Amino acid sequence: MSRIRVAVDVGGTFTDICIMDEDSGAIRIEKTASTPDDPMQAIMNGVEQGRIDLSEVTMFSHGTTVATNALITRRLPRTAMVCSEGFRDVVEIRRANKEDLWDTYKDVAKPYIPRRDRLTVRERVSAEGTILEALDEEAARRVAEILKKRQVKSIAVCFMNSYVNGANERRMREILKEAMPDLPVSISSEVMPEIFEHERFSTTMANAVCAPVVVDYVSRLGERLADAGYKRDLLLLHSGGGVMTPASVRDFSARLAGSGIAAGAIASRFIGNLCGFPNSIGFDMGGTSTDVSLAWNGESRITKDWYIEFGYPIRFPSIEVLTIGAGGGSLAWQDEGGSLRNGPQSAGAFRGPACYKNGNRTATNTDANVVLGRLGTSLAGGKITLDPALATQAVQETVAEPFGMELHQAAEAIIAVANANMGNAVRLLSISRGYDPRDFALVAFGGAGALHGAAVAKELSIPTVIVPPNPGVTSALGCLLVDVQHDFSESFMADASTVSPAEMQAAFVLMEKQAVERLGHEGVAQEDMALQRTVEMMYQGQWRSLAVSAPARIESICPLIEAFHNEHEREFNYRREDAPVSIFRIAVKAIGIVPKAEIPRHEVLPHVPEPLGRRGVWFDGVSHDAAVYERDQLSAGAAFAGPAIVEQFDSTTVVPPGMSATVDGFLNILIVTKG
């Protein structure tokens, strides 16, 4: 019997299925239309369409947008919060800031849990962890009865200073469970045991509101897969770049809030390393949005400063991904000042671009690419046919006539604005972080990434663009390249010059014990466990910290301080050797290693391929006679020069004039942006 692995990435327009044969490493792909009302239906449609025998599947990995969409749309079950008396409004007060500081009329959204469902009880813990006042259990039981009558579906418990002593929170959970045994209860001392009340309360609140939605979805999907013959655990990709089983979803549901975008970053990093580029920028352009990620020295950047909705941070470690509203379906429009804009409004999966023939008459990036000849007349292997006449009409009416431009000039203007938006996103994640884009390769994927990747790279002086073999389903491939992973952290505030190495070592050992227990709960064998330590530090007086790696045994703090100075200099371009350094937090990443299938390598035989045809493609106001290649016909060692178009089932690659391309042993196209 064959053994296969299946990965699923649910996007706004398409659901991508990546199917890998464990023995040969061969990959085949399927795309099916997403079903936003019930994402599971698109998954099962893809399984049927791909003729997947689930009894032969050894791993089923899934990047899901269920939690993300629930938070964005606020289609959330009724959830309650129990707080220390006097602190029910921490999540309402937030940080008293705004996303757009100068917009008087734009308010920050309300908390996910309204004030009427945020109740309080008397209890108090000191900043040192001493219980100054035990939980008022009589009041706690009254609160439990009230919430039971309100028929809430989930509860968050957030007490002051519980990050140093969670005894009162744990007791509150016990009382709530006595009244409502089957209700998910998230307590902040377990979800996010760190200082800063708002961040801790907000993360726990997000975790609580997501729990019923995610648990229901995961349970239903697991049952459908099991009924169809799948015998293993469903693996769910989380924001930190690992996977977890349904056993952990109930307690850490908000970790799935960044699930969908993490897959592409993982795949991008893997492909960059595979091609010999440990420094790579992921450029994932789909139908609605573009996700930009960065890997440095083979590792993804991790952040804890992220959110789905401004004002409500989710402090679980997450791969840093910058998302902007620029995709194949992004609409071109004219602002009040008369300037041409592109996105973030999108034509969506339906009606889609004008050339999809579903009634949209506003030009999109896809329509502009059709007009310029960069995109052919069919997508997804002929499942979607494009109408060039409708694309021409949309570009003419949306941009050419209002701006007094010739048709092709208007189409190029649409693409230029989109590329500028995406180039700015890359700058924000690279130059503003202290990284020079010229030191990186750009990994272009997603349904539209390879169409725009070379132009964006040229604008940023990035020397090499990598286009994976299956750009449209590369994010799904990322789901096959991950390990089981959990992150543990706790506040450890001390002066680095006086802290005891033995004290820090003891704190790490205690966390690592919890990490091993969690991995064991996930079914990971002892020999497949790996633990990674980090210490977060800052110059005294700062409030933002930087993380540095810590050794398995800490005998001196001096190497950690030196590593912090180096990281601070790289990030901010200065260091202060004479300034005292504070330790803020310690963390452990627990990894359960999942065996990876090997990507097959082909023999490289240099040759110049014969194009299947030629067509006129516009660049810089001039129509060029461009060679058109079929991706399946480009074997390892193929070399060709632009202008050229490479078409395939899930994407189209554009090689502009003056650039050259080769196919490597893993069948990636490497485009050199300088002639």
Automatic annotation (TrEMBL):
One of the record's GO molecular function terms: 5-oxoprolinase (ATP-hydrolyzing) activity
Domain Acetophenone carboxylase-like C-terminal: 501-666
Residues in Hydantoinase A/oxoprolinase domain copies: 200-487
GO biological process: glutathione metabolic process
Signal peptide: none
Sequence ranges assigned to domain Hydantoinase/oxoprolinase N-terminal in this UniProt record: 5-179
InterPro entries linked to this entry: ACX-like_C, ATPase_NBD, Hydant_A_N, Hydantoinase_A, Oxoprolinase-like
Taxonomy, superkingdom: Bacteria
Any Pfam family matching the protein: Hydant_A_N
Any one cellular-component term (Gene Ontology): cytosol
Protein name per the record: Hydantoinase/oxoprolinase family protein
Species the sequence originates in: Mesorhizobium ciceri
